[in-house]
Model the fold of this input.
Amino acid sequence: MRVVYEIGGKYERPEPCDGLVNSSIDPRVTYQRSRIYDFTFDGDPAGLETFVRHCLYDEIGQVLAQDAPLLKGQSLTLEVGMKPGALDLEKEAILAVYRERPDAGFALTRLRLRQRYCFYGPVTEAIERRLVRDLVNPAIQTHTMERAA
Done:
């Protein structure tokens, strides 16, 4: 079975990209980010949801979506994840917590983490290239990009 959770900040709103990239871009282009947790597992889906809600999600400051995008209306989506074999400390920490819970009710077979950046406004091809250059380290990361239809 596969379930994808997306977690973002409850009080975060689109903000200028100046703090995200190495040099300023069109001030009309803003962004928000969220975290994607992609689980493949056997067993009880309720056990996985309990694990996510207790270990990854803070109901006071975050919002959670399951198998549906959390952020909407963007002109460009960039997802960045670690290449297989690259050290991912967050993933290792999640797996360590999972291993401490042998009675979780599910058996985790795969976990993929990604950072999702949603960009709003007039994102040109030149801006796309700069975003990838500044946000993706090709030595250890993979990325996917999707423009709104």
Q: What stands out?
A: The first strand starts at residue 2 and ends at 9. The chain has one domain: 2-147. The chain has a mean pLDDT of 95.
